[in-house]
Amino acid sequence: MNFFGAMYDKTMEWSKHRLAAYWLAFVSFIEAIFFPIPPDVMLIPMAMTKPQSAVRFALICTAASVIGGMVGYSIGYYAFDLVQQYIVKWGYQTQWDKAISWFKEWGVLVVFVAGFSPIPYKVFTIAAGVMQMAFIPFVLTAAVSRAARFVLIAKLAAWGGTKFADKLRRSIEVIGWSVVALAVIAYLVLK
Hints:
This protein is mostly helical. It has 9 helices and no strands.
């Protein structure tokens, strides 16, 4: 079965599309609010296929993510009662509780860590609004954190380039099914 290979091929095809940078911005923006897939899925292949534009792609990703983070913050600040049900419905309650406890303990530093955390970024943007974190420090910290993450990812992908893309394609089924197996095991163990 070539499930992950087909997805990989489609992603690589999309990364070369003339509107790819716009789609990258869109995915980065909505991921900071509600979308479950991180922009890395587009950023990495775009940086691998066009290494000379990797930093530009990372900055597009950063700007859109920070703007999306501001929207997420606003949702938390002004409309949390309306979206609270979705935190439970979409299975983010555990991550939500952890984010809130981190905000109480660490304040603005949590936003910096959130840029690199495996916990979905949207949880932190909305939590920052709920906790009524100071807006300017939130935006500045989010910008630094997201830029550091996306530039690092883009530079690594560009460094690997098309050679790495070819090697990754040959191993994508093993990698993909291994991640699925680890996720299932983690779910069963942590449940």
